Amino acid sequence: MARYEIFVTYKNGIFDPPGATAERALANLGYEGVESVQIGKYIRLAGDVDLATVTEVCEKLLANPVIEDFRVETVEEA
Amino acid sequence: MARYEIFVTYKNGIFDPPGATAERALANLGYEGVESVQIGKYIRLAGDVDLATVTEVCEKLLANPVIEDFRVETVEEA
């Protein structure tokens, strides 16, 4: 069984609502040092699937290619 | 300025609604090989903050320690 880690992030220039909310909340809580927070998705996928299929699945379902980028990493078994 | 990557995942045994939804959708789309999908958060944080502060921020705001685990990694500047 293969394991993959997928990182989904907003494209540059696309507004990141959860990140902006976290930035404001941290400023309100007094964490002045925090300059930027970007919040994306961290997906772990396992199964009898190859990397090409996982990439296809990301494009179709797990990410929105219009506003998001994604990166797939294969997890090596110990 | 320091940069951190934070990975937030549901604790073992806690139901993961977005992951379960993705699993069902992938089965419906014909991706029979996919066995499990777990969806968490991938957060990038930058600022003049140390690791202890980032961990505190995760516990207070970015993760829900009751149902979620988190892992913080420092990003080395190139």
% residues in beta strands of chain A: 35-45%
The pair of chains with the biggest contact is:
A-B, 32 and 32 residues
Query: What is the average per-residue confidence, as pLDDT of chain A, rounded to a whole number?
Result: 96
Name the overall outline of chain A. Answer: elongated
**Count the helices of chain A. How many?**
2
Q: What about the largest sheet of chain A?
A: 3 strands, antiparallel
Care to count the β-strands of chain A? 3
CATH topology of chain A: Mth169, Chain: A
CATH architecture of chain A: 2-Layer Sandwich
Give me the secondary-structure category of chain A: alpha+beta
CATH homologous superfamily title of chain A: Phosphoribosylformylglycinamidine synthase subunit PurS
Radius of gyration of chain A: 16 Å
Name the assembly state. Answer: homodimer
Name the helicity range of chain A.
Answer: 25-40%
Placed side by side, the strands forming the largest sheet of chain A appear as: 2-1-3
H-E order of chain A: EHEHE
Which regions of chain A have little confidence, pLDDT < 50, spanning 5+ residues? none
User: Gap between N and C termini of chain A, in Å?
Assistant: 13 Å
Number of domains as seen in the coordinates of chain A: 1
CATH class of chain A: Alpha Beta
Provide a concise account of the structure shown.
Two copies of one chain form a homodimer. Chain A is of the alpha+beta class and 78 residues long.
What does this protein structure show overall?
Two copies of one chain form a homodimer. With 78 residues, chain A is of the alpha+beta class. The first copy, chain A, has one domain: Mth169, Chain: A. The first copy, chain A, is built from two helices and three strands; from the N terminus they run βαβαβ. In chain A, strands 2-1-3 form a three-stranded antiparallel β-sheet. Strand 2 of chain A pairs antiparallel with strand 2 of chain B.
